[in-house]
From TrEMBL:
GO terms for molecular function: metal ion binding; molybdopterin molybdotransferase activity. It holds the Pfam family MoCF_biosynth. SUPFAM superfamilies: MoeA C-terminal domain-like, MoeA N-terminal region -like, Molybdenum cofactor biosynthesis proteins. It catalyses: adenylyl-molybdopterin + molybdate = Mo-molybdopterin + AMP + H(+). It is an enzyme of class 2 (transferase). The keyword Oxidoreductase does not apply. It comes from the Bacteria. One of its GO terms (biological process) is Mo-molybdopterin cofactor biosynthetic process. Residues 171-308 form the MoaB/Mog domain. Gene3D superfamilies: MoaB/Mog-like domain (3.40.980.10), MoeA, C-terminal, domain IV (2.40.340.10), Molybdopterin biosynthesis moea protein, domain 2 (3.90.105.10), Molybdopterin biosynthesis moea protein, domain 3 (2.170.190.11). Keywords: Magnesium, Metal-binding, Molybdenum, Molybdenum cofactor biosynthesis, Transferase. Belongs to the MoeA family. This is Molybdopterin molybdenumtransferase.
Length: 388
């Protein structure tokens, strides 16, 4: 058994960053920017009014002006504004030549084409200077996971196609005679393939392209057949059959098909029988079958692997340090990822930690991480958590 950190090092060495593809801007959300992008223009491309009001050469309570025209967003006032003159102006409009300040309309009395500034004058000139948001050439750096705000910025920079890292293709193989798909009618000794679907969605959320392969049965021929269907997957993930039982055949069959194994068994709870290696062009990760073990390994190992393939920094799942809501007992020799919930009192670790309990995992919002041989802890003690 190797420690979690060593397993992650092996996984990072196996995970290859994928190639770059260009996508239309609106499809770039949730993708990883692969190369820096530079703004193609200045923003705003003219000094712009920040308010609805009147553009004037100077402003003070009591000053009066004659309104000589209008400037709206997308329709500039063509002339120059001189002393005693005002231009009706709207938010986003180019500020005409000569205008030094925009007086908001709430601070003005209007009578026909005459305005008089009242004594309620606010601060500032209400003018956004030319290029004060960004200038042409300003860059958005890569790698970067693009969110809605980034897309808005890239659009303003007039970028319509975005170089992103290709989505990793992940083949998901469930194994076991006992499994049927959700919606099917299980026999009396069968259960529903559940973590398969949890992992599918996790992978999707990570920016991968998961593919569900048919369930492999607990015999070598069936496993070989399904392994033969992984096609051009970058990552092959098996679920179950990873342990030491007579029907746990994944390692043997994968090795028969050329798996160069990097490790098998990690000193963690749950997730001990994890394995990984290289299988022809793909990377393979064999997850334990227990539903919580598979999902925990998804967060602890698959998520960092997918991020690495997407070109993001090879780093373990992010942790935060919080405080325990109640005392917990000593930990054993394996790093323990305990299902827990954040409450107003702190991190409440659930009593029931069996790795088959999806209902408990469903009620959890964090994994509380206990180092190997961590002594008993009192309420209020610090504890690291990984958000689910
Ligand atoms: N003698 C030992 N027995 C076990 C050990 C051990 O070290 N020595 N390790 C235990 C640990 S830890 C785990 S975790 C499990 C993992 O076993 P496998 O990876 O071989 O998984 P299976 O035996 O195939 O299944 C375990 C459990 O999970 C259910 N399962 C499997 N796939 C799915 C799925 N896609 N969706 C829902 N449920 C699934 C399966 O029916 C079993 O109940 O081994 C321990 N045993
Ligand atoms: O991964 Mo196993 O759950 O440690 O029960």
């Amino acid at each position: 058994m190797i420690p979690v950190s060593e397993a992650l090092d092996h996984l990072f060495a196996l995970a290859r960053p994928l190639e770059v593809e260009d996508v239309p801007l609106r499809e770039a959300g949730g993708r990883v920017l692969a190369r820096p992008l530079a703004a193609l223009r200045d923003q705003p491309p003219f000094a712009a009014s920040a308010m609805d009001g009147y553009g004037v050469t100077e402003a003070a309570p009591g000053l009066a002006f004659r309104v000589i025209g209008e400037a709206a967003a997308g329709r500039a006032f063509p002339g120059r504004v001189g002393p005693g003159e005002a231009v009706r102006i709207f938010t986003g409009a180019p500020v005409p030549e000569g205008v030094k300040t925009v007086v908001i309309q709430e601070d003005v009395d209007r009578d026909g084409d005459r305005i008089t500034i009242t004594d309620r004058l606010g601060d500032g000139d209400n003018i956004r200077p030319y290029g004060n948001d960004f200038r042409a050439g300003m860059t958005v750096e890569a790698p970067r996971l693009l969110g809605p705000q980034d897309i808005a910025l890239l659009a303003a920079m007039n970028i319509d196609r975005v170089p992103v890292t290709r989505r990793p293709r992940v083949a998901l193989i469930s194994t076991g005679d006992e499994l049927v798909m959700p919606g099917e009618t299980p026999g009396p000794d069968q259960i529903i393939a559940s973590n398969t679907f949890g992992l599918y969605v996790l992978l999707q959320q990570l920016g991968a392209e998961p593919r569900l392969l048919p369930i492999a049965r607990d015999n070598e021929a069936s496993l070989r057949t399904i392994f033969g269907m992984v096609g051009d997957a970058d990552l092959v993930v098996t679920i179950g059959g990873a342990s030491v039982g007579d029907h746990d055949l994944v390692a043997r069959v994968a090795e028969g098909m050329g798996l160069e194994r990097a490790f098998h068994k990690v000193a963690m709870r749950p997730g001990k029988p994890l394995m990984s290696g290289r299988l022809a062009e793909a990377m393979m990760v064999g997850l334990p079958g227990n539903p919580v073990s598979a999902m925990v390994c998804g967060h602890v190992f698959l998520a960092p692997v997918i991020r690495t393939m997407l070109g993001l920094a090879a780093a373990p799942a992010a942790r935060e340090t919080l405080r325990l809501a109640a005392a917990i007992g000593a930990n054993g020799p394996r790093e323990h990822y305990m299902r827990a919930r954040i409450t107003s009192e702190g991190v409440a670790v659930f009593d029931r930690q069996d790795s088959a309990l999806l209902s408990v995992l469903g009620a959890a919002d964090v994994l509380a991480v206990r180092p190997p041989n961590d002594p008993a802890r009192q309420a209020g003690a610090e504890i690291d958590v990984i958000r689910l």
